[in-house]
Amino acid sequence: MAKMAASVVAESGEDVFRKMFKFYKRREPPPDLKEVTDFSSGAASGGKIVPLKLDPAAVSDEDAARVGLHPVRDWRAFGLQGYPGFIFISNPFLRGSQAFWVRQCLKTYPQKPNVCNLDMHMSPCDTQDIWARSAQALRSPPSEKRQPKTLLERLRWVTLGYHYNWDTKTYSANSYTPFPPDLHMLSSRITAACGFPGFRSEAAILNYYRSDSSLGIHVDESELDHSRPLLSLSFGQSAIFLLGGSQRQDPPTAMFMHSGDVMLMSGPSRLLYHAVPRILPPPRQHAAFLDELSCSCALPTANVLEPVSQEDWDVCSRYIQSSRVNMTVRQVLGPGQSFPEDLSSAHQTDDKGRTVGYQDDENSGKRKRTCSDPVGTVET
Ligand code: OGA
Ligand code: MN
């Protein structure tokens, strides 16, 4: 296989991953999707899907329900042969509860003090209330006249906790705001059920995809501790996700991610190349999230999920009819670990004033986005 991949590179100057990325991104003619693994139906798995039993004792049924999840014993969890540490959970959300998380992604998390792409070229007062400035236009029926895009439609990413710096590809101690407790609660319960108790949600990147967006080939390696898993949650439109190897030459596996699907990259799969070449309308059986609100009254009471008002849902449902939101939650630091710059004061300097004795930056890593199509963030 490696040999074949090398010859492909030699011939075309392109690695196998990039070829596959372009294959699925292509519009005309549309790509054949028969090789795309669908965990929800077991289709096109080539026998690679392995059902997994997660630990039902790690999270009580009540604690699961409080964040909108089915009891762990009912989750449909899978591994993928050849990808140890990769866990796919096919929509573990209770009916009606995705609406809450979608509303958080669109209305709550883009608010200050969190950081978003619009802050890069707009003043804080102009990005103060993205929701309020967009909701009215999104609620009204699309007019014949082409309206300027609302702020919500121009939202591409939001960062939480330690805010990822896209230029330096690092996190730092001096760019931190409190991580949303509800999202931490959701994340810690899912990771605990997957065998990672004590997960600390310290940073998240929320990506907002329109129907023609994609996310380039990259490895998430900016976090300082790679022994902690990376958790990914998707809502709205479906996507094709490509999971590769540790080398660009390794041919990736293509899989669908539907609304509510959860993915964990841990252990040997934590640092694999991956990408999202395409957003797709959900197949019928996955489109139920669109009318989910009708049953949010059925949600358990003592939970962190406040009901979503009809008014808010009108905006959310309109938005996700053509968009996808993905949250990746990360633990940045290992237990007792701190950022190199924090340590500098605690360490001595040599006679030239250089800091000595702190951890080498070698494995602090970079969040590499190496695909030349979309660099950095979700590209439309
Ligand atoms: C990321 C990422 C994947 C997705 O943000 O690092 O890989 O499904 N997202 O959007
Ligand atoms: Mn990633």
From TrEMBL:
Q: Known EC number(s)?
A: 1.14.11.33, 1.14.11.51, 4.2.99.18
Record keywords, A-Z: Dioxygenase, DNA damage, DNA repair, Iron, Lyase, Metal-binding, Multifunctional enzyme, Nucleus, Oxidoreductase, RNA repair, Transcription, Transcription regulation, Translation regulation
Cofactor binding note of this UniProt entry = Binds 1 Fe(2+) ion per subunit.
Q: Where is this region: Disordered?
A: 336-380
What reaction gets catalysed by this protein? a methylated nucleobase within DNA + 2-oxoglutarate + O2 = a nucleobase within DNA + formaldehyde + succinate + CO2; an N(3)-methylcytidine in mRNA + 2-oxoglutarate + O2 = a cytidine in mRNA + formaldehyde + succinate + CO2; an N(6)-methyl-2'-deoxyadenosine in DNA + 2-oxoglutarate + O2 = a 2'-deoxyadenosine in DNA + formaldehyde + succinate + CO2; N(1)-methyladenosine(58) in tRNA + 2-oxoglutarate + O2 = adenosine(58) in tRNA + formaldehyde + succinate + CO2
Cofactor entry: Fe(2+)
Instruction: Spell out the GO cellular component terms annotated for this protein, sorted alphabetically and separated by semicolons.
Output: cytoplasm; nucleus
For the ligand (Fe cation), the binding residues are 218, 220, 274
Tell me where in this chain the Fe2OG dioxygenase domain is found: 200-293
- Per the record, the major location class is nucleus
**One of the GO biological process terms:** RNA repair
Asked whether the UniProt record includes rRNA-binding among its keywords, one would answer no
Q: Where in the cell is it found?
A: Nucleus
Q: Which PANTHER family match?
A: ALKYLATED DNA REPAIR PROTEIN ALKB-RELATED, NUCLEIC ACID DIOXYGENASE ALKBH1
Instruction: State what protein this is by name.
Output: Nucleic acid dioxygenase ALKBH1
Which organism is this entry from?
Fundulus heteroclitus (Killifish)
